[in-house]
Write a structure and sequence with these properties.
The chain is an alpha+beta fold. It has eleven helices and 14 strands. The strands form five sheets. Strands 2-1-13-12-11 form a five-stranded antiparallel beta sheet, with helices on both faces. The protein is globular and about 55 Å long.
Length: 366
């Protein structure tokens, strides 16, 4: 490939993106792989495919896969109430102007998967839930113990009536722990990562080898500079060292993510009909209007943890991206999978990464 995809990736480099790993599979075969830039701030070590990236919200695809495996086995149902596993969530309050009122509808597993439960994504260090979790756990914040405190904070809206990007998938990780009796990272390793040969993927921050993570940056849009984030692991979604974020806590590589995408495309890690359920729009009315406005894109709806086709001709892919610029997509109609990883928060190519999919299709003539 030397046309549209290369041109777009070169544009990313011109915008100052320090490094990236881009991998494309077509009909089950690798047809394109490009590594660019350096893995360290000193720019002495060229990026290699073993370097780990925090894929941030691409983690949601992995968490959803585990949840839907439980649905397939009958240990979990989409209509199950969150309070069936965590009674604290049985009687929620909802913000109404400057006051709160009792929620009428109970939160379900489907609400969590579709981001329609009413939670928010406020990562403020001093939010009540996190402050209490740190105080009780000595700052470690185990996942199950921590998400329970979210029940003490009012919802943004009545469950099922709107859409808001939120901690829903973090709560789902806690549900997986509660049902399985295993720590989320251990469950993911046993049921998803090991079966797929994803040997470089983990939700356990303590498993990440020192020096194995690609240097992370933050883009300053005022000065157009890439700011060095430092050598410590950077993840604002990591509440404590024992907290495993199902929505943003996975460290992985492009090849490992591709193994998951290919398994979803082929219907091996989940049944084909389950993948169809995952990748079908579940939003309607106000929900989808809010989603499309927030995403600045009317080509997609939202399924179970993934952006998905919404009837726009030529857009038959589903997938999601991450806060530092990761992007992955699966097109089962055209047998195409694409993974793109980078490590830049507030990235200048945030919206341009969506064009990787049509660029790859153009290259392949599909």
């Amino acid at each position: 490939m030397s046309g549209a995809l290369e041109t777009l990736l070169n544009k990313f480099l011109d915008m100052g993106i320090p490094s990236f790993d881009c991998l494309v599979y077509y009909k089950g075969n690798e047809v394109y792989h490009r590594l660019a830039g350096f893995s360290d701030y000193e720019k002495t070590r060229a990026l290699d495919e073993e370097q780990l990236f925090n894929v941030y919200s691409v983690s949601k695809l992995m968490t959803v896969t585990a949840v839907l495996q439980m649905v397939e086995s009958g240990t979990l149902r989409l209509r199950d109430r969150l309070s069936d596993f965590f009674p604290e969530f049985a009687h929620m309050r909802v913000r109404t102007n400057q006051k709160t009122a009792d929620a009428v509808t109970e939160i379900t597993i489907e609400h969590l998967l579709t981001m329609s439960a009413g939670f928010n994504y406020d990562r403020a260090y001093d939010r009540p839930a996190w402050a209490k979790a740190r105080a009780v756990s000595g700052g470690h914040c185990p996942t199950v113990q921590t998400v329970r405190f979210l029940a003490e904070e009012p919802l943004e809206y009545e469950p099922g009536t709107d859409w808001k990007y939120s901690f829903g998938h973090d709560i789902l990780a806690a549900v997986v722990e509660q049902i399985s009796g295993e720590r989320f990272s251990a469950y993911m390793k046993r049921h998803v990562f090991t079966p797929l040969g994803m040997t470089n993927s983990t939700f356990d921050i303590l498993e990440v080898p020192q020096g194995s993570i690609c240097a992370q940056y933050r883009y300053n849009s005022d000065t157009c500079e890439m700011m060095n984030c430092g050598t410590e692991i950077q993840n604002g979604f990591k509440i404590g060292d024992a907290y495993e974020s199902g929505g943003a806590g996975c460290y992985s590589t492009a090849r490992d993510v591709m193994k998951l995408l290919e398994a979803l495309r082929e219907g091996t890690i989940l049944r084909p009909e389950t993948v169809t359920l995952m990748s079908t729009n579940h939003l309607c009315g106000k929900q989808i209007l809010t989603f499309q406005k927030e995403q600045a894109d009317t080509r997609y709806g939202y399924g179970l943890g993934v952006g998905c086709p919404n009837g726009t001709p030529g857009w038959t892919n589903f997938g999601w991206g991450g806060a530092a610029g990761a992007y992955c997509t699966v097109d089962r109609v055209n047998d195409l999978c694409l993974v793109y990883l980078q490590h830049v928060m507030n990235s200048p190519n945030k919206y341009l990464r969506r064009e990787l999919y049509p660029a790859a299709k153009q290259e392949l003539g599909i």
